[in-house]
Amino acid sequence: MANYLVTGACGFIGSNYVYYHLKTKPQDKIVIFDALTYAGCYETVAPLIDNNQVFFVKGDIGDLKCVTDTLERYEIDCIVNFAAESHVDRSILGPDLFIKTNIEGTYNLLKCALSYFEKRGQGHFHHISTDEVFGSLEESDPPFTEQNPFRPNSPYSASKASSDCLVRAFVHTYGLKATVTNCSNNYGPRQFPEKLIGLALTNLLEGKLVPIYGDGKQKRDWLFVDDHCLAIDLAIEKGQSGETYNIGGRECRTNLEVIENLSLTLDKIFKEHPNFIKQYPLSFAAKDESFVGKTTFVADRPGHDRRYEIDPSFSEKALGFKPQETFASGLYKTVLWYLENEAWWRALQQRRIDFSSTWAKMS
Ligand SMILES: NC(=O)c1ccc[n+]([C@@H]2O[C@H](COP(=O)([O-])OP(=O)(O)OC[C@H]3O[C@@H](n4cnc5c(N)ncnc54)[C@H](O)[C@@H]3O)[C@@H](O)[C@H]2O)c1
Predict the structure, then answer these.
(1) Which of 86, 190, 224, 227 to mutate to test the pocket of ligand 1 (most atoms within 8 A of CB)?
(2) Considering the domain 3-191+222-251+303-324, what is its CATH architecture?
(3) CA distances from residue 274 to 76, 185, 332, 353 in whole angstroms, order as listed
(4) Which residue of 95, 133, 305, 335 is 20 to 30 Å from 103, comparing CA positions?
């Protein structure tokens, strides 16, 4: 039994991690620590909070006193750091917050962890990072391994690369026990509906076209969120301190292919469950139309990376990591979750920003 501090657990991956971890390790205690920014949703985790096994603290990872008090009060054994500003588009319009949260915030969390774990004589820090730190691949380049140099291209990826370097420095200089996972694009339930799959899905349910940046041929490696959670727990259990692990699903798709797969999944689920037509009267299915092809090309984001692809061989070998879902099965679960949780995504819609009109003005 262990006590976990999960930062950023009211966001997409952090909240899925809490649900996942409680299912697979029901004896552990979890403290959900979140600043509740635009991306944080208390309601997502509210059903889990019982103040006995699962607790909630509203706090900023940059707040030394709040973090230290929380570590001491709940006798934390392991910190899993998801807290971050995570949207590339937002980092282009407002990089300051990315520097503050992702770099200064992680630095503060590391400082608090080091002094608390030293006093306690044990403790593990796990940092969640992204494949975007490695920059963009040409079509003929091999996928990213852990040996690829950091070549971040956006304020978001630069801030994440900096935080990864800080974790490394705390391990090598001060002896903090820490691991890092660099994961590819995640998709699944509970994702704020501003990133590709959530935005496309909710647009299609409202009978709106899906905006496609540029030519739509940007390639990403997709992983179902529970498989990312599995990899994180394997890295915490079996990983070596100071090591980084690349996590991916070997499921590369262009954005256009992703939207086509998503549309076909919607067609299939509406056929299997015709009751959804009543629930979504504006959707293309309600007009007896396919969801396929309901796209519109819009101005691309500045500096849009062309291709990311992870080589997960090291984590497969060292951690025994193996994704449980294919892109098709993960997408099916994702679409069904959004269809069944309309109130959840509708409540978040007003927090979205329309970036494509900004990029059009800039181009
Ligand atoms: N989404 C992806 O596809 C993906 C892929 C690889 C890695 N990652 C990384 O995984 C992590 C989580 O990503 P996500 O998509 O769930 O993000 P998200 O934006 O959905 O959630 C971020 C959460 O962090 C909280 N937060 C922000 N600033 C905070 C602060 N200063 N103190 C405390 N909490 C704060 C927010 O309120 C929110 O709940 C990030 O570090 C991201 O870089 C994401």
Answers:
(1) 86
(2) 3-Layer(aba) Sandwich (3.40)
(3) 48, 31, 16, 32
(4) 305
